[in-house]
Amino acid sequence: MTSNFPIKLLACATFCVAGLAVGQAPAQAATWHAGTPKALRGMYQAHRENQADGFGPVLKLTAKSVSRQNSNWPLIKITHVKYKRLKHNTYLIKGHMQKNGYVLSRPASVYIARKGNRLLTIMDPDFPGSTRKTFHADYRYALRNPFVKTHKVKANGPVIHV
């Protein structure tokens, strides 16, 4: 009886250490989701910086793409997007920038923070090698196409959008 005790103790200790080593997995704070966050979707427009701009930059977030249009610049469109929530109302959106004019095709990323009806962005796809790390563009909801939550109500008849 005493000769089996050290072997059983060693086997138990081995299984406990192996279980701890295998059971520990690194924690993932946020996971990647396909598309763009529903809370950010819509069309936003920033103010012009000077008279020569024509119109202020327009940022449009759809379910599958992010696009930005400046006056007299080619459209910057990011498709095949995925996003990760970094903190409350702050997201990292990654995707593939489409070639358009002198805008080259390449991977791109955008940091977007929402504060009320405003979007603050860090959009490093503007120029390759950009090192901007602070939120700089202040977009507001465009009045012509604000994001509206709709609830479908059916009361003994056709579907009514409220």
From TrEMBL:
Keywords on this record?
Signal
Is the keyword Signal in the record? yes
Its signal peptide is 1-29
Superkingdom of this protein's organism: Bacteria
The protein depicted here goes by the name Surface layer protein A domain-containing protein
Q: Which organism does this sequence originate in?
A: Candidatus Levilactobacillus faecigallinarum
